[in-house]
Specification:
single chain; alpha/beta; 5-stranded mixed β-sheet; 12 helices; 13 strands; globular; disordered C terminus
C-alpha cells in the first residue's frame, strides 16, 4: 500500500484495494493505523460518479526527511527533502581528495548534514536515510574504495545510506515525478558526454549494462572502449563533437566547454547545412538506438534525459521519434525528461524513501509494529 501511494498517490481506499489485491476491509484497517501514526494523511476528496465523495490518501510529506547527495568532481551537493521530494535546503562541501578518501567524504557530509538541519530546524531523529548519486563514470563497486555500510559507520547517525549510479537515479526520479510517472515499465536514457540507460519497473531501476557499447554501425567509427560503431561513438556528446570537427567552419565549435560547444553546434543548424545534416543524422542514430531498447524491453515510455539529450531532443525530438518508430516495433511514447534541474540530487533523496517503504522493519518506531 505504501508503495502504491508513493508511486501513484493520492489514491482512495477502493483504488488501493484494486492496486494491491487486498480486501477493502484489510485496506481500511491498515490505513487507519497508518493515518493515526502520521505516515499516511488524507489528501482531499474526489468525485465518485454520484455517490459520496471518496477520501484520497497519500504519504504524509512531513512524517520524515531524507538527505540527497550529488557528487560532482571534487564537491558534494547535499540537499534536505521531505517525503514528497520537496527540496528544503541545499549546501555544498568541497572534497580535496575526491571520493577516494572515505574519511573526508564522511567528515564533509556530516558537516553538511548538520548545517542543513540547523538551517531548516529539523531534528536528526526525523531523518529516514541518506541517498548518494554517483556520476555516470563511477561504479559503487569499482570506482570508489568504500561502501554504504562503511559510510554509515563513519557518520554514526544510525540511519541507512543508499548509493546508486546517476542513470538509475534519473530513472527513479522520472518515474516518481517526471515523464515516466504513472506507468509500470519505462526506460530512461541519459545522454551526456557518454550514454547510459536504465529500466525502471515497479519502483526499481536497473542499469542496462553497456548499452552504449552495443553496435549501431558495423565497422563504423572507433570508440574509446576499443570497438568500432558503438552507440556512444555516435550519440554521446564526445562522439558528436568529434564528428563536428570534420565540418567546414569548425573553428567556432572549438570555443567553450562541452555543453557550450554542443549548444553552438545545435544552434548552427539553422544556417549551416553541414551542421544540420550532422545533427539530423545524430537524431536518427538516437532514434535507432532507443528503438532497439523499445523492441527488446517493451517499455510503456522511453524518456531521453541528460544535458546533451535535452539539447538535441528540444530541437529534433520529431526526428528521433520517427527513427524510433521505424526501428522499435513498439508504440512506446518517446519523451524528453521533465526533471532536469537537480535531477541527481532529487533522485538521490528518493532512494531512502523507497528503502523505508520496502523494508517494513526500517520504518520509524512509531509505525514499526504495523
Amino acid at each position: 500500500m505504501l508503495s502504491a501511494l508513493y508511486l501513484d498517490g493520492p489514491l482512495s481506499r477502493k483504488e488501493l484495494s484494486a492496486a494491491t489485491g487486498l480486501s477493502p476491509s484489510a485496506v481500511s484497517q491498515s490505513i487507519t493505523g497508518l493515518v493515526q501514526n502520521g505516515l499516511v494523511r488524507e489528501a482531499g476528496k474526489a468525485d465518485s460518479n454520484g455517490g459520496r465523495p471518496r477520501t484520497l490518501l497519500d504519504i504524509n510529506p512531513t512524517f520524515g526527511y531524507t538527505v540527497g547527495v550529488a557528487i560532482t568532481g571534487r564537491a558534494l551537493r547535499i540537499g534536505l527533502f521531505d517525503l514528497s521530494c520537496r527540496r528544503i535546503q541545499v549546501v555544498k562541501r568541497a572534497l580535496s581528495a575526491g571520493v577516494q578518501d572515505i574519511d573526508e567524504v564522511a567528515r564533509e557530509l556530516g558537516i553538511g548534514i548538520r548545517h542543513l538541519l540547523s538551517l531548516s530546524g529539523v531534528h536528526d531523529s526525523a531523518l529516514t536515510g541518506i541517498g548518494i548519486g554517483l556520476p555516470s563514470s563511477a561504479s559503487p563497486h569499482q570506482a570508489i574504495p568504500w561502501t554504504s555500510r562503511k559510510l554509515e559507520s563513519l557518520l554514526g547517525l544510525g540511519i541507512p545510506v543508499f548509493i546508486e549510479r546517476e542513470v538509475n537515479i534519473r530513472a527513479l526520479v522520472e518515474s516518481r515525478l517526471g515523464a515516466a510517472r504513472g506507468v509500470g515499465r519505462a526506460v530512461v536514457v541519459q545522454i551526456g558526454l557518454g550514454v547510459e540507460a536504465s529500466l525502471v519497473a515497479d519502483g526499481t531501476a536497473k542499469r542496462i549494462r553497456d548499452w552504449g557499447h552495443t553496435t549501431i554501425d558495423y565497422g563504423g567509427r572507433s570508440c574509446h572502449c576499443g570497438a568500432r560503431g558503438c552507440v556512444e561513438a555516435y550519440v554521446g556528446a564526445s562522439g558528436i563533437l568529434q564528428r563536428s570537427l570534420e565540418l567546414p567552419g569548425r573553428e567556432a565549435l572549438l570555443e567553450g566547454n562541452d555543453f557550450e560547444r554542443l549548444r553552438t553546434l545545435v544552434g548552427s543548424t539553422e544556417h549551416c547545412a553541414a551542421a544540420h545534416a550532422l545533427v539530423r543524422e545524430t537524431a536518427g542514430y538516437i532514434g535507432a538506438a532507443v528503438g532497439n531498447l523499445i523492441a527488446l524491453l517493451a517499455p510503456a515510455r522511453l524518456v531521453i534525459s541528460g544535458w546533451a539529450g535535452q539539447l538535441l531532443g528540444s530541437r529534433f525530438l520529431p526526428e528521433i521519434r520517427d527513427a524510433a518508430t521505424r526501428h522499435g516495433l513498439s508504440p512506446a511514447a518517446v519523451l524528453l525528461g521533465r526533471v532536469e534541474v537537480d535531477a541527481t540530487l532529487t533522485g538521490a533523496a528518493v532512494l531512502p524513501v523507497l528503502g523505508l517503504i520496502k523494508r517494513g522493519t526500517a520504518l520509524p518506531r512509531a509505525v514499526a509494529g504495523l
